[in-house]
Amino acid sequence: MRITTNFLLKKAKQRSDGTYPVYIRATLDGKRIELSTGVFVSFDGWDKTGQKISNRYPNSKLLNNRLTKVLNKLTETYYQLDALGEEFDIRSIKERLCGTPKNYLVKVFQLVIDSIEKKIGYGYSYGTYKHYKTTLKRLKLYLNEVNIRQDIALNKIDYNFINSFDTWLKVKHKVSGHTAGKYHKQLKKVLNDAIAMNLLDKNPYINFKIKGFQGKRDYLTLEEVTRIERKKFAFTRINIVRDVFVFACYTGLSYSEIANLKPNSLSKGDDGEEWIVTDRLKTNTRCRIPLLSKAKSIIEKYKDYPINVEKGRLLPINSNQKMNAYLKEIADICQIDKKLSMHVARHTFATSITLANGVPIETVSKMLGHNSLKTTQIYGKIIDSKITKDMKKLKTLL
Fold first, then answer.
1. 116, 202: one domain
2. What's the burial of 300, exposed, middle or buried (CB within 10 Å: 0-12/13-18/19+)?
3. What InterPro entries does the database record attribute to this sequence (predicted)?
4. What is the C-alpha R_g of the chain?
5. Strand pairing partners for 153?
6. Mind listing the pLDDT tens digit of every residue in the chain (398 residues)?
7. Of 25, 59, 233, 270, which sits 20 to 30 A from 276 (CA to CA)?
8. Last residue of a domain, one of 66, 98, 130
9. How do 274-280 and 46-47 pair as beta strands?
């Protein structure tokens, strides 16, 4: 299968200045396309035999350079499609050159990532953006290693493709079921977006069950939180990070949400108590969280802290990367055999602080800003201490 090309003058499209458009014609398997090059020339200025603008024609060098670029782009597109190892025709070349439709996985995935990047702070967090980029990186590696191609047509993605990707993640790269589930969740979302763009008829994930996505959610017991609270550290920077972490444990707010807290994020509720009112970045849902006394005391502690006054924040907060590095130190010093992170603090609020103390799951769901109670129920399944308490109560009744 070989492509042939030639330039031609479109005599039927003469312009008022007497010039004609130069088109490029490409033929593949007996079918052809004709595309405008954007170059115009008089009849006498066209060298039909040499397939170029006559050297005597004004700006001939510049115009011929444009024709060469068009030819090179078309030829390059042909070889790119050929390298994918899939069947394609002359229309596929035209679609790629004209940019519509973008019916290839990597291209659509990149479109989704670009859209998320523009919406950071408006329903999406920077963390979500980074996760999608990581998933795309994995997909590209998979395509190169297993399918020996750079991209794949959306209509070629089926159960076998997804199952092979799952095996590649778990067997070759030793990815946990939970992490693999995250990759699948994001790929499934991108394919749903492709359906919305009319680039795909149905989602191949309809027949594939994403296993192990819920995974293990680390959280601290109340005793571990208290141990961190009471520990006095030698360095101010560690004490600040500890306070921000403990604040997250008593509010359920994420790193980004705490970083965005301002004095006007606090308001008096109908009960006369102070509440935090903020928008959950991930779901774009408004959260109203009663301010527990321990969280309130941390806000009071840093009320006049210079950087807070300067930036109009409630709490001094480092970059997430630095926070996690310092939290590792805190875990070591406090002899807690868990990987501390701001996610762990949020999980702790959902489990040890609220659910384990009898706060109804519907209330917890509202405070966490979950769109679905099903998301919150994950926490309800992992509280061993609550199960033990409930069983003890039951034993007294039997």
1. yes
2. exposed
3. Arm-DNA-bind_5, DNA_brk_join_enz, Integrase-like_cat_sf, Integrase_catalytic, Integrase_recombinase_N, SAM-like_dom, Tyrosine_recombinase_XerCD
4. 30
5. 104
6. 689 999 999 999 888 889 999 999 999 988 998 988 989 999 999 999 999 999 999 999 999 999 999 999 999 988 888 877 767 888 888 877 776 546 889 989 999 999 999 888 777 778 889 999 999 999 999 988 886 567 888 988 999 999 999 999 999 999 988 889 999 999 999 999 999 888 888 999 998 988 765 545 688 999 999 999 999 998 999 999 999 999 999 999 988 889 989 999 999 888 888 999 988 766 667 888 999 999 999 999 998 888 888 888 999 988 877 888 899 999 999 999 998 999 899 999 998 899 888 888 888 888 888 877 777 777 766 565 556 766 777 677 76
7. 233
8. 98
9. unpaired
Instruction: Report the candidate in 130, 102, 134 with the shortest Cα–Cα distance to residue 117.
Output: 130
Question: At 330, phi and psi to the nearest 5?
Answer: -60, -45
Q: Nearest-CA neighbor of 390 among 357, 354, 363, 367?
A: 357
Domain-embedded: residue 281: yes
- Whether the CB-CB separation of 357 and 329 falls below 8 Å is answered with no
Q: How far apart are CA 362 and CA 352, in angstroms?
A: 16
* Backbone φ/ψ region at 46: left (φ over 0), alpha (ψ -120 to 50), beta: beta
